[in-house]
């Protein structure tokens, strides 16, 4: 069962995908180490310019000859309203003051048309560079994009948080689909359903999704070890995607303090917030999240709020101030270790084999 | 792995416990059918008088010679404040009007002392009747109660929604502990941690709990079939407890409309509410939950709110009106079937064996 169509389609040795965490975590070292260790390394390219993307793709190619992939954010329509931006800035200015940053009133933000153009440029780069695998979050790309990528033989992976979203991904021609359980760290991938409807635990979501699509289902959310891999397979998944487990690896570009906080946290320490980006995401609770809690329903949508909080997050990183960083993390931080990617993958496979042998 | 210390301690054939759903669902027919089919049937005695409890225990004994158990609610301190009751009644009176029920202003509610006395009476009955297994929700009984039950050789099972709660159960002398994931239907069993901290998905919660206690861990929440059983075992559990899967069985005392709604629902249809009882619980969204949504933080605690809504729920049942019933359900309704208990248990074990053989 560990040797199935998912690994055949992806041409990898083990059914393990490294989640494409955006924002500098998926260094070329991490991506290539995953692919060199038998998994599928993924570049989290959501926030990258097409140029940055091309640079990293080329870098990864020099470090591994195995399959790897990139992940892109499918742009969702958003409206820029100066009054909403102004009131969001009013909420953020006290934090800026605390961090000795200048206050802000308005902000220059690219409009939806521009964001969409960038997405199309990213797709072009992926095809020009012959990236073997392309995964998507926050939606399904337009049919034209899907068919172009298919013509280029790119393997396509969608993301779903409910059965309906999984079915839509299959209908649109995705080759497989990530099933994101409520345990998952970072951004919720929901695109049809609101946050509440999409907060389904993996124990429920995986089998219900597997029953309703024919493409391989890949489990994501809270999986950290051989136990989680084998459990996902039992539930009907063909493989797993892990974020937090790779985030704390030595090769990951996450801030050292982010790694330390995760490896010292418990399952009770994460919360869902939309204060950092305008989209719901799971991370370790800190001062920023707590202070914004009662205001988060009125914030601008993604990616506006994300752009607005950028100066705060960057400053916090430069000062190693954990209270104002986005400390994305799934619900299994007790199982996170700071170790090499190779050791992580090897121990997962060894543990899974050991459990299998005792069943 | 399916033949482990959990089934040895409980003297059952299969590692399956029927969740002790209170409020008439766990009929003697259901409890005995589970025990006669190789699982552990449980009487949900939380809302029963000691007399009702004794009657049902005796009835179950006539229907099975196998082990079975009862579940009790550990009383949590609550204060009766007439102003809170009055304002809660003001919220409920429009529903009463809609259902042609008389409005209410105040209500006679037993105080904490009385509730606690009833709990002690329930414990006495369990011991006098030599009930083999006793499980607890909403907390851990006082040390004196635990030691009396242990002297009587009662097997004790606690409930936990976080690792900390699991550890407390072990320290208090529980023989095993139910680990309730966020997928679970019905009442949240949290007693240390608030609802938000305790909403941890099973994929994360089971392995983290199993790593931190030595007593057997029993997975609960969203488990419906052989896939869920085997996944739970892979994650470190020794067995499973299922609620929704048994609720829709033929022998269950749940309202036929409740069963029908579950078997026609999806993973998107459940929500958490404290509007029915004052404690957070997961059920199918309906008019009552939706209307009370923005007011639920200010309601009286359990069991006060539960007593207040009793006339509404009873009337809704008598009229087969699904909009005002508490339709408890976990996050896997797509996997629910209306079938006999025996078929359910047999198909779970057959499916688990089949999956094992292909691993």
Automatic annotation (TrEMBL), chains A, B:
<dbReference type="GO" id="GO:0009636">
    <property type="term" value="P:response to toxic substance"/>
</dbReference>
<comment type="similarity">
    <text>Belongs to the nitronate monooxygenase family. NMO class I subfamily.</text>
</comment>
<keyword id="KW-0285">Flavoprotein</keyword>
<keyword id="KW-0288">FMN</keyword>
<keyword id="KW-0547">Nucleotide-binding</keyword>
<keyword id="KW-0503">Monooxygenase</keyword>
<protein>
    <recommendedName>
        <fullName>Probable nitronate monooxygenase</fullName>
    </recommendedName>
</protein>
<keyword id="KW-0216">Detoxification</keyword>
<keyword id="KW-0560">Oxidoreductase</keyword>
<comment type="function">
    <text>Nitronate monooxygenase that uses molecular oxygen to catalyze the oxidative denitrification of alkyl nitronates. Acts on propionate 3-nitronate (P3N), the presumed physiological substrate. Probably functions in the detoxification of P3N, a metabolic poison produced by plants and fungi as a defense mechanism.</text>
</comment>
<dbReference type="Pfam" id="PF03060">
    <property type="entry name" value="NMO"/>
</dbReference>
<dbReference type="GO" id="GO:0000166">
    <property type="term" value="F:nucleotide binding"/>
</dbReference>
<dbReference type="InterPro" id="IPR013785">
    <property type="entry name" value="Aldolase_TIM"/>
</dbReference>
<dbReference type="GO" id="GO:0018580">
    <property type="term" value="F:nitronate monooxygenase activity"/>
</dbReference>
<dbReference type="InterPro" id="IPR004136">
    <property type="entry name" value="NMO"/>
</dbReference>
């Amino acid at each position: 069962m560990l040797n199935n169509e998912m690994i055949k389609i992806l041409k990898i040795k083990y059914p393990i995908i490294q989640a494409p965490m955006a924002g500098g975590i998926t260094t070329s070292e991490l991506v290539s180490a995953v692919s060199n260790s038998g998994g599928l390394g993924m570049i989290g390219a959501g926030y990258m310019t097409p140029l940055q993307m091309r640079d990293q793709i080329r870098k990864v190619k020099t470090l591994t000859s195995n399959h790897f992939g990139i992940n892109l954010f499918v742009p969702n329509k958003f409206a820029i309203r100066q009054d909403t931006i102004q009131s969001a800035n009013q909420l953020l200015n006290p934090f800026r003051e605390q961090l000795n940053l200048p206050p802000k009133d308005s902000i220059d933000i690219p409009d939806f048309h521009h964001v969409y153009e960038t997405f199309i440029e990213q797709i072009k780069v992926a095809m020009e560079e012959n990236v073997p695998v392309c995964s998507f979050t926050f939606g399904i790309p337009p049919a034209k994009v899907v068919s172009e990528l298919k013509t280029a033989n790119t393997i396509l992976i969608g993301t779903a948080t409910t059965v309906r979203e999984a079915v839509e991904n299959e209908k649109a021609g995705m080759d497989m689909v990530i099933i994101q359980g409520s345990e998952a760290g970072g951004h919720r991938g929901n695109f049809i359903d609101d946050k509440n409807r999409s907060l389904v635990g993996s124990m429920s979501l995986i089998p219900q999704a597997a029953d309703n699509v024919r493409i391989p289902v890949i489990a994501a959310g809270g999986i950290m070890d051989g136990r989680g891999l084998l459990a996902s397979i039992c539930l009907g998944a063909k493989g797993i995607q892990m974020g937090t487990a790779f985030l704390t690896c030595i090769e990951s570009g996450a801030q050292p303090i982010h790694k330390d906080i995760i490896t010292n946290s418990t399952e009770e320490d994460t919360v869902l917030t939309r204060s950092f980006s305008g989209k719901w995401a799971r991370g370790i609770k800190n001062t920023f999240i707590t202070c914004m809690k009662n205001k988060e329903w009125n914030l601008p949508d993604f990616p506006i709020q994300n752009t607005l909080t950028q100066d705060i997050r960057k400053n916090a990183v430069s000062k190693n101030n954990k209270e104002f960083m986005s400390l994305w993390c799934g619900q299994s931080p007790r199982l996170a270790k700071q170790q090499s990617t190779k050791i992580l993958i090897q121990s997962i496979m060894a543990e899974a084999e050991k459990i299998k042998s005792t069943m």
